[in-house]
Design goal:
single chain, 5-stranded parallel sheet, 16 strands
C-alpha cells in the first residue's frame, strides 16, 4: 500500500498508530458470517477431511440363515456410517434387492440352497454402480478361491466384530470402476466346473457399467487414450488398456491385427487384399479394419482360410 493510502499528504505521518492498523486489518477481514475462523472449542477440519465427506455405506445382507443375518445386522449397526438397506434369504431375493436398493456393499453368503452366492454374482449385468462384494462363508477354501478371483474381502463364520469393521473399511475405499472389475473377475469363476471359462469385460456408457461376455464383443479399438469395445449394437468405453485386454484374452479368439485394434476372429466375415502389404478385414457388423500382410496371414491361419 502506498504512502498516500496510509498517511497524510506529501508522505507525512507514514507511521500508523495501533488503532489505525487495527482498522485497516479489520476492513481486510471477511465478513463474520462466513465463519472462516472457528470459535473456541470447535473442531477444525483438515482439507483432506471435509465435513460430511464420509457418506453412508448402503449395505445388503444376504444369507439363508436367519440367525446369521441377525448377527451380521447387530454387528453392522455398531459400525459408524453404515446403513443397512435390506436383507435377503435367497439368491433370487438378493438379485431383486440389489436392483431395488442399489447397495454399495453386499455381504454375500456363498452356500445357499438353489442359487448360491457365486450364482448371484454371475447374474449381475449392469448398473450405475456395481456393489462391492464381500464373501461370507464357513469354509475357508471357498473364501480363498473367491478372494483370489476378485472378491474385495472374505469373512469366515463366526465373524468377529473387528474383522467385520476391517472389511467394511476396505470396501469403503473401493471405486466404482474397481468394483465392476472385481465383479467381472468373480463371474469368471462363478460357472460350473465342467463348463468353459467365461471371460467378462467391463464396459461403461456414461455413469453405467456393463459386464460383457467376450463372445459378444467384436473388437477393441484404441483412439488416443481411450479404448472402445465394439459389439453388434453399440460401443462401450473400456476400463482397461488394450495391452491389458490382450493379456487377459490370450488363448482366445481375439487377435491383435494393428497396434490400435484387437478383433474377435469369430466375427470376421471377409478379408480382402488392398495391396501387396495391406489387407481389409470386415467384421459381421460391417466394421472394417486395415491389417498388415503379416497380421492378415495369421488371422487366416486362425480361421483356416
Amino acid at each position: 500500500m502506498g504512502a498516500h493510502g496510509i498517511g497524510g499528504r506529501g508522505g507525512e505521518n507514514l507511521r500508523m498508530s495501533a488503532h489505525q492498523e487495527f482498522q485497516i486489518v479489520d476492513r481486510l477481514l471477511p465478513p463474520a458470517h462466513l465463519n472462516l475462523v472457528q470459535p473456541s472449542g470447535s473442531s477444525v477440519l483438515k482439507e483432506s477431511e471435509p465435513e460430511c465427506a464420509r457418506m453412508q455405506l448402503k449395505t445388503l445382507i444376504v444369507d439363508d440363515e436367519p440367525v446369521a443375518r441377525k448377527i451380521l445386522r447387530e454387528e453392522l449397526e455398531s459400525i459408524e456410517d453404515v446403513e443397512i438397506v435390506g436383507e435377503a434369504e435367497s439368491g433370487t431375493e438378493a438379485l431383486d434387492k440389489i436392483v431395488e436398493c442399489r447397495p454399495d456393499l453386499v455381504l454375500l453368503d456363498l452356500q445357499m440352497p438353489g442359487m448360491g452366492g457365486l450364482d448371484v454374482v454371475r447374474k449381475l449385468k449392469h448398473g450405475p454402480s456395481m456393489p462391492v462384494i464381500i464373501i461370507v462363508t464357513a469354509y475357508d477354501q471357498f473364501a480363498l478361491q473367491a478372494f483370489d478371483a476378485g472378491a474385495i474381502d472374505y469373512l469366515l463364520k463366526p465373524i468377529g466384530q473387528d474383522r467385520l469393521a476391517e472389511a467394511v473399511e476396505r470396501a469403503r475405499r473401493v471405486t466404482g470402476r474397481e468394483a465392476a472389475e472385481k465383479v467381472a473377475q468373480l463371474q469368471e469363476i462363478g460357472v460350473p466346473a465342467e463348463g468353459p471359462r467365461i471371460r467378462r469385460i467391463v464396459g461403461r456408457v456414461g455413469e453405467e457399467y456393463f459386464l460383457l461376455s467376450a463372445d459378444e464383443i467384436y473388437a477393441f479399438q484404441a483412439e488416443g487414450d481411450l479404448v472402445w469395445i465394439v459389439t453388434a449394437k453399440r460401443r462401450y468405453l473400456a476400463t482397461q488398456t488394450l495391452k491389458v485386454l490382450q493379456e487377459r484374452l490370450k488363448s482366445t479368439s481375439f487377435h491383435r491385427i494393428h497396434r490400435n485394434a484387437l478383433v474377435n476372429v469369430d466375427h470376421v466375415r471377409k478379408m480382402s487384399a488392398l495391396s501387396s502389404q495391406r489387407w481389409l478385414i470386415t467384421l459381421s457388423n460391417d466394421q472394417e479394419f486395415i491389417a498388415s500382410k503379416r497380421q492378415a496371414r495369421s488371422v487366416r491361419q486362425l480361421l483356416n482360410w
